[in-house]
Protein backbone atom coordinates (compact mmCIF):
# COMPACT_ATOMS: atom_id res chain seq x y z
CA UNK A 1 0.00 0.00 0.00
CA UNK A 2 1.28 3.43 -0.94
CA UNK A 3 0.67 5.65 2.09
CA UNK A 4 1.12 8.82 -0.02
CA UNK A 5 3.45 10.51 2.44
CA UNK A 6 6.55 10.67 0.24
CA UNK A 7 8.58 13.85 0.73
CA UNK A 8 6.72 14.83 3.90
CA UNK A 9 8.84 15.91 6.86
CA UNK A 10 8.65 14.11 10.21
CA UNK A 11 10.11 14.70 13.65
CA UNK A 12 10.47 11.48 15.64
CA UNK A 13 11.44 11.76 19.30
CA UNK A 14 13.47 9.23 21.30
CA UNK A 15 14.32 7.57 18.00
CA UNK A 16 17.82 6.22 18.60
CA UNK A 17 16.51 2.80 19.58
CA UNK A 18 13.43 0.75 20.36
CA UNK A 19 9.97 1.78 19.25
CA UNK A 20 11.00 5.28 18.23
CA UNK A 21 13.60 3.82 15.90
CA UNK A 22 10.98 1.43 14.51
CA UNK A 23 8.68 4.35 13.72
CA UNK A 24 11.47 6.34 12.08
CA UNK A 25 12.48 3.36 9.93
CA UNK A 26 8.91 2.79 8.75
CA UNK A 27 8.52 6.44 7.79
CA UNK A 28 11.86 6.51 5.98
CA UNK A 29 10.80 3.41 4.02
CA UNK A 30 7.74 5.37 2.87
CA UNK A 31 9.91 8.17 1.49
CA UNK A 32 9.46 10.58 4.40
CA UNK A 33 12.28 12.96 5.29
CA UNK A 34 12.97 12.38 8.96
CA UNK A 35 14.57 14.31 11.80
CA UNK A 36 15.37 12.01 14.71
CA UNK A 37 16.27 13.16 18.17
CA UNK A 38 17.49 11.55 21.38
CA UNK A 39 19.90 12.36 24.18
CA UNK A 40 22.63 9.86 23.30
CA UNK A 41 24.57 11.29 20.37
CA UNK A 42 26.53 8.13 19.54
CA UNK A 43 23.51 5.84 19.35
CA UNK A 44 21.55 8.50 17.49
CA UNK A 45 24.20 8.90 14.80
CA UNK A 46 24.43 5.11 14.39
CA UNK A 47 20.67 4.96 13.90
CA UNK A 48 20.75 7.82 11.40
CA UNK A 49 23.41 5.99 9.39
CA UNK A 50 21.28 2.85 9.35
CA UNK A 51 18.17 4.76 8.29
CA UNK A 52 20.01 6.35 5.36
CA UNK A 53 20.68 2.85 3.99
CA UNK A 54 16.97 2.01 3.71
CA UNK A 55 15.98 1.78 0.03
CA UNK A 56 14.26 4.96 -1.10
CA UNK A 57 15.41 6.94 1.93
CA UNK A 58 15.13 10.68 1.67
CA UNK A 59 16.88 13.06 4.01
CA UNK A 60 17.68 11.86 7.53
CA UNK A 61 18.87 14.40 10.08
CA UNK A 62 19.98 13.62 13.63
CA UNK A 63 19.71 16.19 16.42
CA UNK A 64 21.10 15.09 19.77
CA UNK A 65 19.51 16.76 22.76
CA UNK A 66 17.04 16.53 25.59
CA UNK A 67 13.57 17.05 24.12
CA UNK A 68 12.18 17.75 27.60
CA UNK A 69 14.08 21.04 27.65
CA UNK A 70 13.19 24.19 25.75
CA UNK A 71 16.64 24.17 24.13
CA UNK A 72 16.23 20.57 22.99
CA UNK A 73 12.85 21.29 21.45
CA UNK A 74 14.06 24.41 19.66
CA UNK A 75 17.00 22.52 18.13
CA UNK A 76 14.87 19.59 16.98
CA UNK A 77 12.15 21.78 15.50
CA UNK A 78 14.69 24.00 13.74
CA UNK A 79 16.12 20.99 11.88
CA UNK A 80 12.83 20.53 9.99
CA UNK A 81 11.93 22.88 7.12
CA UNK A 82 8.35 22.10 8.12
CA UNK A 83 6.75 19.38 10.21
CA UNK A 84 4.00 17.36 8.59
CA UNK A 85 4.34 14.43 10.99
CA UNK A 86 5.17 14.51 14.70
CA UNK A 87 5.86 11.33 16.65
CA UNK A 88 6.02 12.07 20.36
CA UNK A 89 7.93 9.50 22.37
CA UNK A 90 9.81 9.36 25.66
CA UNK A 91 11.11 6.67 27.95
CA UNK A 92 8.69 5.83 30.72
CA UNK A 93 9.31 6.92 34.30
CA UNK A 94 10.55 4.28 36.74
CA UNK A 95 8.23 1.94 38.65
CA UNK A 96 7.82 2.16 42.38
CA UNK A 97 5.61 2.93 45.36
CA UNK A 98 3.81 6.28 45.19
CA UNK A 99 4.51 6.80 48.87
CA UNK A 100 8.15 7.35 47.96
CA UNK A 101 7.53 9.97 45.25
CA UNK A 102 7.86 13.63 46.11
CA UNK A 103 6.75 16.57 43.99
CA UNK A 104 10.02 16.73 42.05
CA UNK A 105 9.71 13.11 40.97
CA UNK A 106 6.12 13.66 39.89
CA UNK A 107 6.98 16.81 37.97
CA UNK A 108 9.82 15.09 36.12
CA UNK A 109 7.44 12.35 34.96
CA UNK A 110 4.72 14.82 33.99
CA UNK A 111 7.20 17.05 32.19
CA UNK A 112 8.59 14.20 30.07
CA UNK A 113 5.41 12.26 29.37
CA UNK A 114 2.73 14.95 29.29
CA UNK A 115 3.97 18.54 29.08
CA UNK A 116 6.77 17.98 26.54
CA UNK A 117 4.45 16.33 23.98
CA UNK A 118 1.95 19.15 24.51
CA UNK A 119 4.66 21.77 23.94
CA UNK A 120 5.68 20.07 20.68
CA UNK A 121 2.07 19.78 19.55
CA UNK A 122 1.57 23.49 20.29
CA UNK A 123 4.64 24.31 18.21
CA UNK A 124 3.44 22.52 15.07
CA UNK A 125 -0.33 22.09 15.03
CA UNK A 126 -1.36 25.49 13.69
CA UNK A 127 1.08 25.33 10.77
CA UNK A 128 -0.18 21.83 10.00
CA UNK A 129 -3.76 23.12 9.93
CA UNK A 130 -2.77 26.04 7.70
CA UNK A 131 -1.24 23.59 5.19
CA UNK A 132 -4.24 21.26 5.41
CA UNK A 133 -2.28 18.21 6.51
CA UNK A 134 -0.82 16.98 9.75
CA UNK A 135 -0.33 13.73 11.62
CA UNK A 136 0.55 13.57 15.29
CA UNK A 137 1.15 10.21 16.95
CA UNK A 138 1.77 10.02 20.68
CA UNK A 139 3.51 6.84 21.81
CA UNK A 140 2.15 6.26 25.29
CA UNK A 141 1.60 2.87 26.95
CA UNK A 142 -0.84 0.02 27.29
CA UNK A 143 -1.03 1.17 30.91
CA UNK A 144 -3.26 4.02 29.72
CA UNK A 145 -5.87 1.39 28.91
CA UNK A 146 -5.12 -0.99 31.79
CA UNK A 147 -3.14 0.76 34.55
CA UNK A 148 -0.33 -1.16 36.24
CA UNK A 149 -0.05 -0.59 39.98
CA UNK A 150 3.72 -0.10 40.16
CA UNK A 151 3.70 2.29 37.18
CA UNK A 152 1.81 5.09 38.90
CA UNK A 153 4.01 7.82 37.43
CA UNK A 154 3.39 6.54 33.93
CA UNK A 155 -0.31 5.91 34.57
CA UNK A 156 -0.79 9.48 35.75
CA UNK A 157 1.35 11.40 33.27
CA UNK A 158 0.39 9.47 30.15
CA UNK A 159 -3.30 9.47 31.06
CA UNK A 160 -3.09 13.24 31.46
CA UNK A 161 -1.70 13.54 27.92
CA UNK A 162 -4.38 11.18 26.61
CA UNK A 163 -7.16 13.22 28.17
CA UNK A 164 -5.76 16.47 26.79
CA UNK A 165 -5.44 15.02 23.29
CA UNK A 166 -8.98 13.65 23.38
CA UNK A 167 -10.26 17.21 23.41
CA UNK A 168 -7.73 18.78 21.08
CA UNK A 169 -8.14 16.11 18.39
CA UNK A 170 -11.85 16.92 18.18
CA UNK A 171 -11.36 20.69 17.99
CA UNK A 172 -11.33 22.80 14.83
CA UNK A 173 -8.04 21.28 13.68
CA UNK A 174 -9.87 18.09 12.66
CA UNK A 175 -11.57 19.98 9.83
CA UNK A 176 -8.18 21.13 8.55
CA UNK A 177 -6.70 17.70 7.91
CA UNK A 178 -4.85 17.30 11.21
CA UNK A 179 -5.20 14.08 13.18
CA UNK A 180 -3.87 13.21 16.64
CA UNK A 181 -3.83 9.64 17.88
CA UNK A 182 -2.23 7.57 20.59
CA UNK A 183 -0.26 4.41 19.95
CA UNK A 184 -0.23 2.20 23.03
CA UNK A 185 2.44 -0.52 23.20
CA UNK A 186 2.24 -3.60 25.35
CA UNK A 187 5.27 -5.89 25.60
CA UNK A 188 7.63 -5.26 22.69
CA UNK A 189 11.00 -6.91 22.21
CA UNK A 190 13.16 -3.90 22.93
CA UNK A 191 16.39 -3.45 24.82
CA UNK A 192 14.44 -1.79 27.62
CA UNK A 193 12.07 -4.75 28.02
CA UNK A 194 14.87 -7.31 27.96
CA UNK A 195 16.86 -5.36 30.54
CA UNK A 196 13.84 -4.94 32.81
CA UNK A 197 12.81 -8.59 32.64
CA UNK A 198 16.31 -9.91 33.19
CA UNK A 199 16.95 -7.58 36.12
CA UNK A 200 13.65 -8.55 37.68
CA UNK A 201 14.41 -12.26 37.27
CA UNK A 202 17.83 -11.95 38.86
CA UNK A 203 16.38 -9.97 41.77
CA UNK A 204 13.77 -12.69 42.31
CA UNK A 205 16.34 -15.48 42.04
CA UNK A 206 14.88 -16.81 38.81
CA UNK A 207 16.54 -17.86 35.58
CA UNK A 208 16.19 -14.90 33.16
CA UNK A 209 15.42 -17.05 30.13
CA UNK A 210 12.71 -18.91 32.03
CA UNK A 211 11.23 -15.60 33.19
CA UNK A 212 11.21 -14.21 29.65
CA UNK A 213 9.54 -17.35 28.32
CA UNK A 214 6.90 -17.14 31.04
CA UNK A 215 6.19 -13.50 30.16
CA UNK A 216 5.71 -14.42 26.51
CA UNK A 217 3.45 -17.32 27.45
CA UNK A 218 1.20 -14.89 29.35
CA UNK A 219 0.45 -13.00 26.11
CA UNK A 220 -2.32 -14.49 23.92
CA UNK A 221 -0.09 -14.06 20.85
CA UNK A 222 2.60 -16.03 22.75
CA UNK A 223 5.32 -13.60 21.75
CA UNK A 224 6.57 -10.07 22.15
CA UNK A 225 5.83 -7.48 19.51
CA UNK A 226 8.54 -6.19 17.19
CA UNK A 227 9.62 -2.62 16.62
CA UNK A 228 9.04 -3.14 12.90
CA UNK A 229 5.34 -3.94 13.28
CA UNK A 230 4.93 -1.09 15.74
CA UNK A 231 6.55 1.25 13.22
CA UNK A 232 4.25 -0.01 10.48
CA UNK A 233 1.19 0.94 12.53
CA UNK A 234 2.69 4.35 13.24
CA UNK A 235 3.32 4.92 9.55
CA UNK A 236 -0.26 3.95 8.72
CA UNK A 237 -1.63 6.44 11.25
CA UNK A 238 0.49 9.07 9.47
CA UNK A 239 -0.88 8.14 6.06
CA UNK A 240 -3.41 9.83 3.81
CA UNK A 241 -5.60 6.76 4.22
CA UNK A 242 -5.83 7.36 7.98
CA UNK A 243 -7.25 10.85 7.60
CA UNK A 244 -10.59 9.83 9.14
CA UNK A 245 -8.98 8.42 12.29
CA UNK A 246 -8.45 10.95 15.06
CA UNK A 247 -8.69 11.09 18.83
CA UNK A 248 -8.17 7.34 19.05
CA UNK A 249 -5.87 5.15 21.11
CA UNK A 250 -4.58 2.12 19.22
CA UNK A 251 -3.57 -0.66 21.58
CA UNK A 252 -0.87 -3.08 20.36
CA UNK A 253 -0.42 -5.74 23.02
CA UNK A 254 -0.87 -9.13 21.36
CA UNK A 255 -4.31 -9.49 22.91
CA UNK A 256 -3.25 -8.99 26.53
CA UNK A 257 -5.94 -6.46 27.41
CA UNK A 258 -8.95 -8.59 28.46
CA UNK A 259 -11.74 -6.06 27.89
CA UNK A 260 -14.19 -5.59 25.04
CA UNK A 261 -13.77 -1.81 24.83
Keywords:
43% helix; globular; seven-stranded parallel beta sheet; alpha/beta; 261 residues; 8 helices; 7 strands
Textual characterization of the structure:
The protein has 8 helices and 7 strands. By secondary structure, it is of the alpha/beta class. Strands 3-2-1-4-5-6-7 form a 7-stranded parallel beta sheet, sandwiched between helices. α1 packs across α8.
Secondary structure blueprint with pairings:
Layout: E1 9-13, H1 18-29, E2 33-38, H2 41-52, E3 60-64, H3 70-78, E4 85-88, H4 103-131, E5 134-139, H5 152-168, E6 178-185, H6 191-203, H7 208-217, H8 227-237, E7 249-252
Tell me briefly what this model is:
This protein is of the alpha/beta class and 261 residues long. It contains eight helices and seven strands; from the N terminus they run E-H-E-H-E-H-E-H-E-H-E-H-H-H-E.
- The pLDDT mean sits at 96
Q: What is the H/E string?
A: EHEHEHEHEHEHHHE
Please compute the radius of gyration using only Cα atoms. 18 Å
User: What count of helical segments does DSSP give?
Assistant: 8
Uncertain segments: none
> Count the strands?
7
Strand content: 5-15%
| Overall SS class | alpha/beta
Amino-to-carboxy terminus distance: 28 Å
How many strands, what sense, and barrel or not for the largest sheet? 7 strands, parallel
Shape descriptor reads: globular
Give the fraction of residues assigned to helices: 40-55%
Give me the side-by-side strand order of the main sheet.
3-2-1-4-5-6-7
Amino acid sequence: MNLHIQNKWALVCAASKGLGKGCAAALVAEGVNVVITARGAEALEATAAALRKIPGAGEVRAVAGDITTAEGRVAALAACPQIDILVNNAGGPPPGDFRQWDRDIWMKAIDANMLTPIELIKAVVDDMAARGYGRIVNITSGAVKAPIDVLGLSNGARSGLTGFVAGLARSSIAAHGVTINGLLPGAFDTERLQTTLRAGAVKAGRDPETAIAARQASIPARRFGSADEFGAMCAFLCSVQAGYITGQNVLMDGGSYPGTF
